[in-house]
């Protein structure tokens, strides 16, 4: 089907799918904020788990489709590249929140915990890469370890949210997560059904982006890593940018930060999906060494973000904190290296 289309129609389909991703992402921010109020789960937990997973759904479809078609590097780079892009989006959100540094105002223990969990999840593929290739039914044990760590991390996050052992110091710029009392009295079922419908649309958009991205790789002579990390990953990460900016404008700062960190944590599962879909052995050994470049960038950017969340600098350079500026520089530098190296 896609092989018979001209480049014009491929770009048109790619753009239409991207538009669906943007519109759904914007709508889902409002739904997630209201679901957090109605269920009493809080913005950080709903943002980190429900919104983070939902907005990452299109990206997971891209990785699975690419892996099933044997394009290991495209599948791998799509997931890992999305983590770096989405972390950089927080710097954009920081520019919009003018009252204070976003990482200061959105202080929340659950977000810190999720960030630490993400760093653990990103080290598992590195361990797999540096050990001899081994797989069971073409699935590497590292994928099972990622699944187990993710599930255990979600359980631990819910406990941290329910019974925190320490709390951030409140300041005049800190925005507390206070549920809307009117929303809290309503049933969340209707909102959840609409949210699920948005997730289905995101899945269809993700599949379209995967197929057109694969065609671009072949027809334009671009490397799978370049297309995955800087094309499909950025486009499928657009819901995170839209939802983050929308959440900041609504004053749901914990939802904004939690959506990015939770989405990144969920994106680590792209590697599990890719490994299952790739039938020629371990995907961790099938990809190129340069694919792990973006994994290292994701680790570095997450570390900087965590330090910013702990330091809680009130103001930095202009309207953004020093950690946000550092995130932009790291991501821009990584893009330059990737483009130069091809």
Description:
With 342 residues, this protein is mainly α. It is globular, with a radius of gyration of 19 Å. The protein has one domain: NCX, central ion-binding region (A middle domain of Talin 1). The model has no long low-confidence stretch (mean pLDDT 79). It is 76% helix and 0% strand. It starts with 6 loop residues before the first helix and ends with a helix. The longest helix has 33 residues, at 7-39.
Short note summarizing the structure:
The chain has helices spanning 7-39, 43-55, 57-68, 72-96, 102-105, 109-129, 141-162, 181-184, 189-219, 224-236, 238-250, 253-267, 269-277, 283-286, 291-311, 322-341. With 342 residues, it is mainly α.
Shape: globular
> Cα distance, first to last residue?
28 Å
Uncertain runs: none
Q: What is the share of helical residues?
A: over 70%
Average pLDDT rating:
79
CATH superfamily caption: NCX, central ion-binding region
> What's the helix-strand series?
HHHHHHHHHHHHHHHH
Q: Mind describing the biggest β-sheet?
A: none
CATH topology: A middle domain of Talin 1
Radius of gyration: 19 Å
Total helical elements: 16
**How much beta, percentage-wise?**
under 5%
Number of domains: 1
Structural class: mainly alpha
Q: What's the CATH architecture name? A: Up-down Bundle
């Amino acid at each position: 089907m896609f092989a018979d289309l001209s480049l014009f129609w491929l770009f048109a389909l790619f753009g239409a799918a991207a538009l669906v991703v943007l519109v759904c992402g914007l709508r889902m921010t409002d739904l997630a904020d209201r679901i957090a109020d109605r269920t009493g789960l809080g913005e950080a937990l709903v943002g980190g788990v429900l919104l983070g997973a939902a907005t990452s759904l299109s990206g997971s479809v891209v990785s699975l489709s690419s892996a099933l078609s044997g394009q290991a590097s495209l599948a791998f780079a799509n997931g890992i590249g999305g983590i770096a892009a989405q972390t950089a989006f927080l710097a954009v959100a920081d520019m919009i929140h003018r009252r204070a540094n976003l990482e200061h105002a959105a202080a929340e223990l659950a977000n810190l915990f999720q960030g630490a969990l993400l760093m653990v999840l990103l080290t598992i593929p590195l361990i797999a890469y540096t050990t001899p290739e081994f797989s069971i039914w073409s699935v590497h044990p590292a994928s099972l370890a990622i699944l187990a760590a993710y599930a255990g991390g979600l359980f631990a996050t819910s406990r941290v949210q329910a019974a925190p052992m320490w709390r951030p110091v409140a300041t005049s710029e800190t925005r507390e997560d206070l549920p809307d009392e009117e929303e809290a009295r309503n049933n969340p079922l209707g909102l959840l059904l609409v949210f699920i419908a948005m997730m289905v649309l995101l899945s269809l958009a993700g599949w379209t982006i995967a197929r057109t991205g694969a065609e671009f790789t072949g027809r334009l002579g671009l490397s799978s890593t370049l297309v995955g990390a800087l094309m499909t990953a950025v486009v499928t990460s657009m819901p995170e940018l839209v939802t983050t900016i929308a959440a900041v404008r609504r004053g749901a700062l914990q939802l904004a930060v939690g959506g990015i960190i939770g989405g990144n944590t969920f994106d680590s599962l792209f590697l599990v999906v890719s490994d299952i879909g790739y039938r020629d052995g371990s995907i961790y050994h099938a990809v190129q060494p340069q694919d792990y470049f973006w994994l290292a960038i994701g680790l570095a950017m997450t570390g900087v973000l965590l330090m910013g969340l702990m330091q809680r600098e009130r103001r930095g350079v202009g309207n953004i904190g020093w950690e946000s500026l550092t995130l932009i520089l790291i991501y821009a530098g990584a893009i330059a290296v990737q483009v130069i190296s091809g």
